[in-house]
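Handout, page 2. Input:
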Amino acid sequence: MAVTKAQIAQEKEGKKKNISLFWKMYAVGIGFVVLLFLLAAWEVFGDLPDHTVLENPQTELATEIVTADGKTLGSFYNENRKPIKFDDLPTNLINALVATEDERFWDHSGIDGYGTARAAAFLGTKGGASTITQQLAKLYFTEQASSNKVERLIQKIREWIITSRLEKQYTKEEIITQYLNEFDFLYQAIGIRSASNIYFDKEPSQLNVSESAVLVAMLKNPRQYNPHREVSKEKSFNRRNQVFVQMVRNNKMTEAVKDSLREIPIKLNYNSASHNEGMGTYFRENLRSWLTDWTKDHINPETGEPFNLYNDGLKVNVTIDYRMQKMAEEAVYTHMERLQAEFDHQQKRNKTAPYTDLTVSQIENNLNSAMKRSVRWREMKKKGIAEAAIIKSFNEKTDMTIFDWKSKFRERDTIMTPMDSIRYYKQFLHTGVMSLEPQTGHVKAWVGGINHKYFKYDHVELGKRQAGSTFKPFLYSAVIDLLKYSPCKKYPDGEYTIPAGKHGNTNDWTPVDSNGDYGNIMTLQEALAKSKNTISARLMDEVGPQPVVDRAAQLGIDTENMDAVPSLALGTADVSLYEMVAAYGVFANGGIYNKPVLVTSIEDKNGTVLYQYVPESKDVLNPETAYVTVNLMEGVTKIGSGAKLRGNSTYMANTDFYKEVITDYPYDFKNDIAGKTGTTQNNSDGWFMGMVPNLVTGVWVGADDRSVHFASTKYGQGATMALPIWGSYMKRIYADETLEISKEPFKKPENLSIETDCDEYEKSQGNDPLKGTNQPNSTTNELDML
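Output:
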C-alpha cells in the first residue's frame, strides 16, 4: 500500500514532537536535578556544614594513656578515638585502602563519574560508586541511609555537595587520614589507631600488609567481617584475601606475594579497650581518679569549660613501663592461680570453709555484714524495698556470672543465691604489686588485684594491712642511725621480755619465734634474715618505739594512727603497699625519698603541654644508714627466707604445689638483692619487699577478710605467698636486657664508719662480741609474727 506524502509529513512531524518532548523532558530532568542540588545547597532539606565546621569537624577524642616506653596503656572515652597523622600511616595500609575502596581516588574530585555510571547501569550489582571522600562525608555529616527512595536521593545529593566541599577544603592525604580516624571498627576501636591497638596490639606504623588488609576488609562492614567474632572469622579471612586481589589488580602487590599470603591465617593480638579489661586496669582506675580532680581545676581554652576527660583528646604520659606492667601481671596470674588452687584444695577439709578460725555464729555475722555492704542491698534499699524482702531475695537462686580461675576467660555462668556468692567470693586470695624506680620515684608497674571486673578494690594504695616483718628494717635502720650498730654485731636469740610500764606497755611483752629455735648467737644480719622476733624485741627495748615511729614517718609511712608500742617491732601497724615500696626506695636510693610519680606530663590534642611533673624529693637518711640497712637486708636473700631466689629450693621442697612453682621458675639469681619477707598473725598477710639498685618491688598477698587464710605457716608465710611473684617478675625482667635493670652491687658510700665486713668487725671486738647487750629472760605470749 502506497504511503502518501501527507502520511510521510505527518510521521516527520510526530518525530519532531517526540524529539522535542525528549529534550524538554531531559531539560526538565536536568533542571530538576540542578534544583535539587540548589535546594540542598540552600539547606532546604537540612543544614549543611559551613566552612568552619568542615575545618574543625566535631568528634569526640579519647584521653590516651601513654607509657614511658611509648605504648598506649588505655584510654578514657565516650568514643575511643585516638587521632593519627598521615605520615604515621603505613604505605601498605594506604595502598590496600585505595585499591579496595576507591581505585580512582587520586584522580577524581570526590565523585567518581565512571563508578557512578557503572552503578547506575548495573543497578549496583557490579559495585557501588561511593568514594572515600563520600564515605567520609557520610561518617561526618549525614544521617543513616533512609529506605525511602526520595529521601535516599536527597541524602545522596547532600553527600555529593559535602563531598565537593571536602575535596576543596582538604588534600587527598587529609581526607584519607580523617576517614581512617573516624571509622568505627567495633569493640571500642574507633579510628585506625585504636583498631590497630586493639586488634593487633600495635601502632598503625607497625602493621604488616596482611594486618592492614584485615582492617581495610572491615571497612565494608565491621561486624560482618570482624576477625574477633567467632561467627565472622571465615568471612574476615576471605574478605582479607579479596583485598589482596584488589592490590594485585592495582599493581600494589605481585601475584607471588598474594599467593604466599592468602593461605596464612589471621593472627590477632586482641587487647580489649574495656575499662575492666586489658593492661593496667587498677592503675588506670587510680589514674582516672587523679585526672578527674585535675580536670576540675584546668580550663579548656576552646570551650571555656574545665577539660573533659572523656572527649577532649588529652594525652597523659605516665611512668608505667608497658613491658614491665605486662611482666608483673603475668607473674601475678601464674602464681595466684596456683596458690588459689592449693588454698581451695586445703579448704575441702575445712567444715567452715573458707573461714579458718571463726565460730558458726561469727561466720553468720560476717556474711550478714557483707550482705548489708553490698551494692545489691544498697540499690534495693534505695527503691524502698522492705528489709525482710531484701534478705529473702539474697537467699533465692538466680542466674549470675562469677569469677573462676579455671574457666577459659576466668568467668563462668552459674546459678546460685546472692548469699552463696558472697561466701564464694570470700574464698579468694588477692594481691598487690608495685614496682618503683627509686632514683626518680617513677612507678613502673602497678597491679592492684587479680581481676578488676570482679574485684574493684585496689590493694596497692587503698588496702592497708599489717606489715609483719617487712616493718623490721625501719626498726633496724633506727638502731643503726642512733646506736651505730654494725650488721655484724651479735646477740643471743633467747626469749626476751619488755616489762609492763616500760615504753608504754600495759603488760609484760615477750614475743616468740615461730620455730622455737633458741639458744643461738647470731649477727644482726642473721637475725633479720631469719626474722628473729626475740632479737627485734631487744632492739626495740634499746632504741624505744617512738624513734621507730619517727623513722617510719620520715620514710613516707602514714603514722597518724600508729601507736608507739614495742609490738611495732613485729609489724603490727597497718600500712599500704604503696607506702612500703616508697619507703624501701629510700634505702635503695642512698637515703633520698622520692614521692612516687604516676604522671610525668599532660598534653592537649594539639600537643600543648598542660601539666609537667615537678619531682618531690627530700633527704631523710644519711647514706651510711641507708647502705648498712641494705646490707642487712641482703642477708635475707643469702641465708634467710629469701634464699630460694638464689636457686635454693629446700625451703619448700616438701610441698607438691611449690615443687611445681620451682620447676617453672628456677630463679637462680646471682646478683645482689636486698629484701624482706613478712607474715602476720594467723598467716593472714604474706609480704615480700625486694630491691636491686634501680628497682624496688613490693608484693602483698592475702584474702580480703583476715579470717580467711592458710591454716599453716608453711603455706601462709610471705616467702610462700608473695615471694614467688617477685621472683618470676624479676626473672622476666632480666630476660629483657633493654629494660636495663641493674645486676650491680648497691653503691657503697665513701668513708663508711660502720663496719659491714664481719671478719674485720670480729677483730675490732676482740673476745667480747656480746658487749653492751642485755641478757635473755623468759616469759611467753601468743604473738607470733615472722
